[in-house]
Write a structure and sequence with these properties.
- 0% of the residues lie in helices and 52% in strands.
- With 155 residues, the chain is mainly beta.
- The strands form four sheets. Strands 1-2-3-4 form a four-stranded antiparallel beta sheet, with no helix packed on it. Strands 5-6-7-8 form a four-stranded antiparallel beta sheet, with no helix packed on it.
- The protein starts with 13 loop residues before the first strand and ends with a strand.
Length: 155
């Protein structure tokens, strides 16, 4: 028998989640409050990391877990980078993604792949320039994306 337990309560519309490699912290996209929170998985304590990302959705770490990438759910559609070294700083990486949802980075941290649910597209964002390229079109409302060793696979 498997047991399910509540780790934290009081989150506002949790949408995206990413757990650090040591499995001690969960970063949660709180769509209802436009913030990213950090949940201590040992104690359940919740702290706000950043606020002001409209309808925050997808989250992904870079390979060193020093930058957290986040999509917003707006019709304009943005990808943000949150620097986790020192006080968190939000930087706009790309815009024009149109209702972005899930996000994942390639192993070399040069591209972010973003599922654009409303448009049915999988997008590649060059993290250095912010240039956006369509990777796949006519998908059926993609919400998440995961990178597998064999390639990219939309959910």
């Amino acid at each position: 028998t498997k047991t399910v337990r509540t780790i934290a309560t009081g989150l506002s519309g949790p949408r995206g989640i990413v757990v650090n490699s040591s499995e001690t912290l969960a970063y949660v996209a709180e769509t209802g409050s436009d913030e990213i929170s950090v949940v201590d998985l040992r104690t359940g304590a919740v702290t706000t990391l950043v606020t002001g990302i409209d309808s925050v959705r997808g989250l992904a770490f870079n390979s060193t877990e020093t930058v957290l990438y986040a999509t917003d759910g707006s019709s304009i559609g943005n990808l943000f980078a949150v620097n986790l070294q020192g006080p968190p700083q939000i930087t706009l990486v790309a815009t024009g993604l149109v209702y972005p949802e899930g996000v994942v980075l390639n192993p070399t941290d040069t591209f972010a792949y973003v599922a654009s649910g409303y448009t049915g597209k999988l997008l590649a964002v060059d993290l250095a320039s912010g240039a956006v390229t369509e990777v796949a079109v006519e998908l059926s409302d993609p919400r998440g994306v995961e990178l597998h060793p064999s390639g990219i696979c939309g959910e």
